[in-house]
Design goal:
Oligomer: single chain
Largest sheet: none
Strand content: under 5%
Number of helices: 4
Length: about 100
């Protein structure tokens, strides 16, 4: 495989990993229903902050996916149009 194909593969894998995280947290994470409204700030703080929360699971793959999109501007496999790369970058910027 060429370097362009590796970049494309790793970017795609990181992107799909991020999609899975989003689906887990936003769509099908059933534990949210069991958190009382008064306890939610403490629950969210434990879940979000620090290296024992969601950050080390979520941010490295998101960073690699964004970096991969930028690298695909220069290292793009044959058959991948530049418009698709710019579309991916545009979606990332909108998010």
């Amino acid at each position: 495989m060429t370097i362009a194909q590796w970049i494309f593969l790793l970017t795609t894998l990181c992107s799909w990993y991020n999609v899975g995280l989003i689906w887990m947290v936003q769509v099908s994470y059933r534990l949210w229903a069991y958190v009382a409204p008064a306890d939610f700030p403490l629950y969210h703080e434990a879940w979000w902050y620090g290296w024992r929360g969601i950050q080390p699971i979520m941010f490295p793959p998101a960073g690699f996916a964004a970096l991969g999109l930028v690298l695909l501007l220069w290292f793009r496999p044959a058959g991948i149009p530049i418009e698709g790369v710019w579309l991916g970058i545009g979606i990332q910027v909108l998010i």
